[in-house]
């Protein structure tokens, strides 16, 4: 197979994973990133991802998972989901499907730093502190102009530069999008009752609240997704009043709560690029799709893009192969977007009849083993 020169844009976990995988295959890789090498601190980072088994398998194959510090990993063996002020509740256990865990909570910056160092070791060429200002291409190559005046010519361009993708804009790719009209509040919460390696989520009429287990048994990562007006109210509260509100919705499952960090917030919005492949340029990850975080599948969806693309680039490939990749991954993204929207709408109403139906559905799923095992296997990825 003739090795190719691939230019990648964006050094988040998706771009870095792809860079390492392409180098393992022998391709020349140049990675463009407007920022610098991520460095994680001693305290838990506020942005985290729930890494499913399939994503973990990819990271293992990239010799990256093995380098993650155990004291920054939060493997979870169980999940509890319930509808607030309702009888509806379901519990999942890894033991029910003969697994050691259901996944791991990983701090984004920790994973990105380890991936960055792995990419350096694999001899990925980094161009940092610069952005792409123009893209031109023909049937044979793609040429990028950077904002510092440099030009780069390569065989292919792969862009994983996030939801506000510069490359997507330069390629004039149209999007379908809608505002969830919700804001996510993230923080690290100290708890008096150990989390017991269990991920917990409660659905409120204004949005879901998730407590995700960190390595410290008395700390969880909070993701509180709320209708924007409600989120602004919560952010305006003092730390003590915010914790009081959180205590009310926690069902006391984690004991006494306290803020262990600042609170950050970000708006939630669905985005879906109508085209992912334009000649020899391709977008993936958040540049191609963003979804609601209520099921924690955003990172896994992006890493699945990488895993599938690496199967294409492992052998001599054609434009048709890339088009097949695009078709496969777009279908997966549409399915996930539809599922998240159904969850959001289904749990986002206080209507008594719908609330009763939700509760009954959760109760049946919890008691019916075959259905429950199917749901667990789906969560594994």
From TrEMBL:
Gene3D superfamilies: FAD/NAD(P)-binding domain
Pfam families, alphabetized: FAD_binding_3
Keywords, alphabetical: FAD, Flavoprotein, Monooxygenase, Oxidoreductase
SUPFAM superfamilies: FAD/NAD(P)-binding domain
Cofactor list: FAD
GO biological process: ubiquinone biosynthetic process
Pathway(s): Cofactor biosynthesis; ubiquinone biosynthesis
GO MF annotations, alphabetized: 2-polyprenylphenol 6-hydroxylase activity; FAD binding
Domain FAD-binding residue range list: 7-333
InterPro entries the UniProt entry points to: FAD-bd (IPR002938), FAD/NAD-bd_sf (IPR036188), Ubi_Hdrlase_CS (IPR018168), UbiH/COQ6 (IPR010971), UbiH/COQ6_monooxygenase (IPR051205)
PANTHER family membership: UBIQUINONE BIOSYNTHESIS MONOOXYGENASE COQ6, MITOCHONDRIAL (PTHR43876)
Sequence similarity: Belongs to the UbiH/COQ6 family.
Protein name per Swiss-Prot or TrEMBL: FAD-binding domain-containing protein
Organism: Pseudidiomarina taiwanensis
